Amino acid sequence: MIVAIDGPAASGKSTTAIGVAKSLGITYLDTGAMYRAVTLGLIENNIKFEDSLELKNYLIQIKLEFAEDKSGTLLFLNGSNVTKKIRTSLVTKNVSEVSALKIVRKFMVDIQREIAKNYDCVLEGRDIGTVVFPNADFKFFLVANEKSRAKRRFDDLSKSGLLDSIGLDDVLKDLNKRDYKDSTRRNSPLKKAYDAKTIDSTNLTINEVIDKIVNIINKKRTLD
Ligand code: DC
Predict the structure, then answer these.
(1) Cβ(39) – ligand 1 distance below 6 Å
(2) Which of 47, 163, 175, 186 has the fewest CB atoms inside 10 Å of its own CB, making it the most exposed?
């Protein structure tokens, strides 16, 4: 079973997807973390995003591994734990440019399909329901108003000590800038799949969003 959860930045996708996967007892895949890890790798290795040969050589040797510990899901890039580094503002500022590249998307989508082919899986991202798994069993598109998205991201950054002394307004500006880039790019733009169910999380707690999704899935599964 594949559950696709897409939506703009800070719409609550990650926490929701983690909760849904936990409640259903299935695997969770954060595809945004994968694009972030590639972005970090390119920056750390001084590879210019527009240098297609170097980019390809980098991508073919990349090894991304997810692991669980008591703090949650960890991500390793070529053996090194990058869980925290991929959330820094440097990566966040560059990830839209990297994730717009066709060759990067092809590599990531192949890996995502390979991982999910062996498991029942909740995948969250921007193109899961439209491109990665257009035949997903369940598709959701999470939205929330600007204020609650900015507040959510602000609180997350502040909790992880990654706020870089920016205020709520700047967080909102950055979110909007990234969503604009992600939804207007040529390759696999952020878009609601025609058959995805939209869930507005503005006035819901994350647990209410999780329950809503799990109920829809369980109801359909008992009917099948
Ligand atoms: O979900 P996130 O904010 O961690 O995602 C980081 C970036 O990765 C996002 O700005 C766009 C890109 N992304 C993508 O293009 N496709 C996905 N399936 C997931 C994320």
Answers:
(1) no
(2) 186
At 124-174, the pLDDT tens digits run 999 999 999 999 999 999 999 999 999 998 898 888 887 776 788 999 999
Phi, psi for 111 (deg, rounded to 5):
-65, -45
**Contact predicate 126/141, CB 8 Å:** no
State both tokens at 141: 């598109």
- The widest CA-to-CA distance across the chain, in whole angstroms, is 53
The mean per-residue pLDDT over the stretch 32-57 comes to 97
Using one digit for the tens of pLDDT, what is the confidence trace for 6-18? 999 999 999 999 9
Whole-number Å distance, alpha carbon 96 to ligand 1 midpoint, is: 7
Nearest 10 degrees: CA dihedral of 38, 43, 49, 55?
Answer: -60
Query: Cα(31) to centroid of ligand 1, in Å?
Result: 7
Q: What is the DSSP letter of 196?
A: P
Which of 136, 134, 123, 148 lies closest to 200 in space, CA to CA?
A: 148
Nearest partner of 130 among 4, 2, 3, judged by Cα: 4
3-state secondary structure of 211: helix
Strand order in the sheet with 197-200: 27-30, 121-125, 2-6, 138-143, 197-200
Residue bearing the CA closest to ligand 1, atom 13: 32
Q: How confident is the model at residue 223 (pLDDT cuts 50, 70, 90)?
A: confident
Determine the topology of domain 2-217 in CATH.
Answer: Rossmann fold (3.40.50)
